[in-house]
């Protein structure tokens, strides 16, 4: 059978399995290769970040970056609804019905591809200049929250974390998941339990030490601290302690740090957030 071979099987690899499947845009064959070389696990090293996936933003990073939910999904979803309405007016089983159905399948595929591409770009930008990435273990989290959360924490975030762990491995960045319980209820500065925040409360304000920052960034900082504790590194405290050392060690020239202890509202726009949105 003639195939479009995107790249040859690399030297030293043996094809162990071939999976053939059909999706809207055609037939695909996936080769699973094996080689005798064992790749060592990535060890904790270098700078660290923690990430928190949220309902409002796509994710927040412990260094103050906020990655927005990409807008192109809305227009794609609109297009999908439009096509689905059109399908209703066609006679079932007719040629036009099948054509309309095919268009919908193609669009589903495009949405899937677009999302995956966005996930890869985001994962790569997170890996820039760091040696450790910590994220919440979402399986635990989904069961600990209500129905709304379960609905929102759908496959998209799970697959993002899968992609992130793969990208980290590929780039030699240590990746680990931490216990997600109460990350948004703890002060990253003094560790005080601050109590549950409502979804509408966007800002973390500590009653004990007065530390103020974006709510999701605070949660990401707690995630980072838990991760660092798990790998046996000293826990970094926000802003005052870590800002100077970051500037020297990180080679991300244009990076601007927007989190200030005064709780600046303009947290949102860092260079990375802008890039991943494109
Ligand atoms: Zn505090």
Any idea what the shape is?
flat
| Total separate domains | 1
Major sheet description: 5 strands, mixed
Number of helices: 8
List the secondary-structure elements in sequence, H or E.
Answer: EEEEEHHEHHHEEEHHH
Q: Mind sketching the topology for me?
A:
Layout: E1 14-23, E2 26-34, E3 48-53, E4 59-61, E5 66-67, H1 72-88, H2 95-127, E6 132-136, H3 138-144, H4 147-152, H5 155-170, E7 174-178, E8 203-205, E9 212-214, H6 215-230, H7 242-249, H8 271-277
Parallel strand pairs: 3-6, 6-7
Antiparallel strand pairs: 1-2, 3-4, 4-5, 8-9
Helix pairs in contact: 1-2, 2-5
Bound molecules: zinc ion.
Zinc ion is lined by residues 187, 189-190, 192, 206, 208-209, 211.
Condensed summary:
With 278 residues, the protein is an alpha/beta fold.
